[in-house]
Amino acid sequence: MAGWERITRRFAVLGFAALAALAVAGTPSWAQKKPIKVAGIYTVPVEQQWVSRIHKALKAAEGRGDVTYQYSENVANTDYERVMREYAEKGTDLVIGEVFGVERAARKVAQDYPKVAFLMGSSGKPQEPNFSVFDNYIQEPSYLTGLVAGKLTKSNTIGMVGGYPIPEVNRLMHAFMDGAKSVNPNVKFLVTFIGSWYDPPKAKEAAFAMIDKGADVLYAERFGVSDAAKERGIKAIGNVIDTAGEYPGTVVASALWHMEPTVDRAIEAVSKGQFKAEDYGKFSHMGVGGSSLAPLDPKLVPQDVIDQVKAKEKDIREGKFTVKVDDSEPKSTM
């Protein structure tokens, strides 16, 4: 009898093991314990402002042991689909990147690999079942930096150099302009787009042209603008990352993007097998730690201006003031 019980138990164990194996085979690849396999695909160097925020958050997750992380940088749009497929074929659990120039191809890849989780910077909507989107909704601190610029300009002319006039750039520029106009109705703007995400020399030349037209504060949406401001002895406003340390006395305020809330939520969802198509944009808001205003130096920004900025920031955080989101292309007002 004892021998029969041992045999019965053995078959029961084998049966449960078989069922478990079948269950795993039928579930998405992301339904597993940490560390999960993450791949980043970037069209620019990881030093570039926007991408550097994603890279930083993923490196932090890697340091905690939550993920193993590989990445490809400087990927041309023509190669983006191929690289996505290569990572998917390698058994990657979560692919993160930006697909603004390759939306259709990227979404087709996601359809072809429904068991891989995709979290992509995109102007579009989520796509069931596995294509989530995110964006840099940092218009709140951008508005606050505009307030600083509007107070500091003496010529009432502010120059703004951007990459491309897409929603992700436009909304931040408009928020900045609204902030400046809220404290200085006389301010005018010069707006130029350089047609590149990473061309510091071209951005610098565009900035020089604005300075020659009277701009005494520059909005540095792209690398290269702060270099022009430094050389000509005027002030600059940073975007996405804090470069005040590299440009002391030149960069006086910066709207910062923190990708950690977005990345950490996606990693957790993948680890728990709960990843789904959703919009992660809200995790870039100040209220959840997705963005912030870099500390203001009273040696560069008058204390009364700092106090005004802090009061407006408090109103934003408490829901008493909402920064308008305007995705239309900003235009020069001179």
Task: Characterise this structure.
The chain is α/β, with parallel strands linked by helices and 334 residues long. It is built from ten helices and eleven strands. It has helices at 2-25, 49-64, 77-89, 103-112, 139-152, 167-183, 200-212, 225-232, 260-271, 303-317; strands at 36-41, 67-72, 94-98, 117-121, 131-134, 157-162, 188-193, 217-220, 235-240, 251-257, 291-293. Helix 7 (200-212) crosses helix 8 (225-232). It is globular, with a radius of gyration of 24 Å. The chain starts with a helix and ends in a 17-residue tail after the last helix.
Compressed to H and E, one letter per element, the order equals: HEHEHEHEEHEHEHEHEEHEH
Helix-strand category = alpha/beta
Q: Globular, elongated, flat, extended or rod-shaped: what is the shape?
A: globular
Cα gyration radius (Å): 24 Å
Strand content: 15-25%
Question: What is the strand arrangement across the widest sheet?
Answer: 7-6-8-9-10-11
Short description:
The protein has ten helices and eleven strands.
List the helices and strands and how they pair.
Layout: H1 2-25, E1 36-41, H2 49-64, E2 67-72, H3 77-89, E3 94-98, H4 103-112, E4 117-121, E5 131-134, H5 139-152, E6 157-162, H6 167-183, E7 188-193, H7 200-212, E8 217-220, H8 225-232, E9 235-240, E10 251-257, H9 260-271, E11 291-293, H10 303-317
Parallel strand pairs: 1-2, 1-3, 3-4, 4-5, 6-7, 6-8, 8-9, 9-10
Antiparallel strand pairs: 10-11
Structural key phrases:
334 residues; alpha/beta; globular; disordered N terminus
